[in-house]
Amino acid sequence: xxxxxxxxxxxxxQPGKPIEEVKRELGLDEVIKLASNExxxxxxxxxxxxxxxxxxxxAVYPDGYARALREKTAEMLDVTEDQLIFGNGSDEVILIxxxxxxxxxxxxxxxxxxxxxxxHNAVIEGTEVREVPLTDGVHDLDAMLEAIDEHxxxxxxxxxxxxxxxxxxxxxxxxxxxxxxxxxxVISDEAYFEYVSAEDxxxxxxxxxxxxxxxxxxxxxxxxxxxxxxxxxGVGHPDLIRAIDPGREPFxxxxxxxxxxxxxxxxxxxIQACHDKNKQEMKKYEDFxxxxxxxxxxxxxxxxxxxxxxxGGEIFDYLLSKGFITRxxxxxxxxxxxxxxxGTPEQNDKIITELTKWL
Length: 359
Ligand code: PMP
Fold this sequence. Notes:
This protein is of the alpha/beta class. It is about 40% helix and about 15% strand. The chain is built from 13 helices and 13 strands. Strand 9 and strand 10 form a beta hairpin.
C-alpha cells in the first residue's frame, strides 16, 4: 500500500514527551508543562458535575449536531444556530474545511511562523501553501493580499498569532477583508480570544453579516480549560456551514465534551478571572525581559515568545533540567527564543527565578 503523494514525508504532530517520561529520565519529582498553551487553573468547577451527569449516557452515541451546546453558543454569540459547526477541537474544523474545499489545483495563504495545522492539512490535500513572513512578529496583510491569486481558496489569519502572541487590529483586519476577493475564504482563528485585552482587537462577529466569506474559529481548549475533551467551533455564513458540514464525522464531539462545554459557558466569572490573572502574570515576564534587555513580542494570548539570545535548544534543555517543559523556539522559526505558556503565579515566579540565575 502507498499513501497518496502529498502525504509522503509528512510527520504526525509531535506534542513532546509525556510528563511522566520526563520525570523518570531526569529523576525529578515534579515536572510542569508550559508548552501547549493550556489553562494552568484548569476549568470551571461546574464542569465536573456536568461530566458526571453525561456519564450515565456513555453507552449511547452523542448528538452529532450538538443541539444544546449549539443553542447556547448561538445565543452567547448572537448568531443563528445554522452559523455554527462544532469540531473535535478547532483542529478538526480546520481539517473539515481543508478536506471540503481544497484540491491540488488550489493554494492557501498563511503567515509564517504561524499555527502549523493550516499548512499540514492543506499539504495533505496536495494544495500549495503560500507562506508570507511576519513583519516584526505581526501578519503582513498587504503582502498576504499580494500573495492571493485566482487559485487561492483560503487565507488564514491567526489572531492572536501562535507562536508570537501578536495581533492584527480591527482597522487592519477590516481593510484586509474588504480587499480579499469574495470567493476566497478568510479564516480568523481566534483560539486565544478570551485572553485578549487590546481595545482595538477586531470584533469579527458583526462582520459576518457583511462578509459571507469570513469564518471565525474559537475553542474550549484554552481559557475554558477543556483541551483534553476536544471541542472547538467555526462561525460563518449558513451557506458555508451547510456546505462543509458533510465533511464532519457523524459523532465528532462526544457527549461529555458537549456537556462540559455547555456548563463552562455559564461560568463567565471563571473566564474573567483567568483573563485577569493571565494579564497580571504576563507583566512578570515582560518586566523580566525589560530588566534584562531581552526582546519579546507583546502577547495578547496566554504565552510569550522571548528572545533570550541563546540557541533555543539550550534554553529548552536548561528549563527542562529545572522541571519545566517549554517550547523550543528553533522549532517555531525563532532560533534564539523560547515560548512559555503562562503558568500559575508560583510556576511563573520559579521559572523567572531560574532564568535570571542562569542568564
Ligand atoms: N488554533 C490555534 C492558533 C492554536 O494555537 C490551537 C492549539 N494549539 C488550535 C487552533 C487548536 O486548538 P484545539 O484543536 O484544541 O481547539
